[in-house]
Structure formats: structure tokens, C-alpha cells
């Protein structure tokens, strides 16, 4: 993998933006959200499927 981190801006319901950071070294996804929403991240799941993440991290 050429990049250690991949940053994905995500728009939730056309009202709020947050950032998902894929750390390819640690095989982790970190969500940075200024509103600290505790609800589900369906928008993130729709943007990046688990298969896509695992293919990126290989």
C-alpha cells in the first residue's frame, strides 16, 4: 500500500460532514466527528463496505 492513511469525507443525510480515516498500518478506521454522534454509521457503511476496506488494507 502506498499510503499509510486514507481520509474519506462522509456526508450524513446532506446535513452534516465527518471524516473517516483508514489507517492501513493498523488496519483501523477512525471516525472524526465534531458533533460526536452516537447513532449508527449507515452512511459510512454505504460509502465503504467491509470488503472494500479489507481490499484497501491488503
TrEMBL record:
Family: Belongs to the peptidase C48 family.
UniProt key word Membrane: no
Name of protein: Ubiquitin-like protease family profile domain-containing protein
Keywords recorded for this protein, A-Z: Hydrolase, Protease, Thiol protease
PROSITE patterns for the chain: ULP_PROTEASE
SUPFAM superfamilies associated with the record: Cysteine proteinases
KW Hydrolase (keyword) present: yes
Source taxon at top rank: Eukaryota
Domain Ubiquitin-like protease family profile per the UniProt entry, residue ranges: 1-58
Pfam families (UniProt xref): Peptidase_C48 (PF02902)
Gene3D superfamilies reported for this sequence: Adenoviral Proteinase, Chain A (3.40.395.10)
UniProt record, GO biological process: protein desumoylation; proteolysis
GO molecular function, one term: deSUMOylase activity
GO CC, alphabetical: nucleus
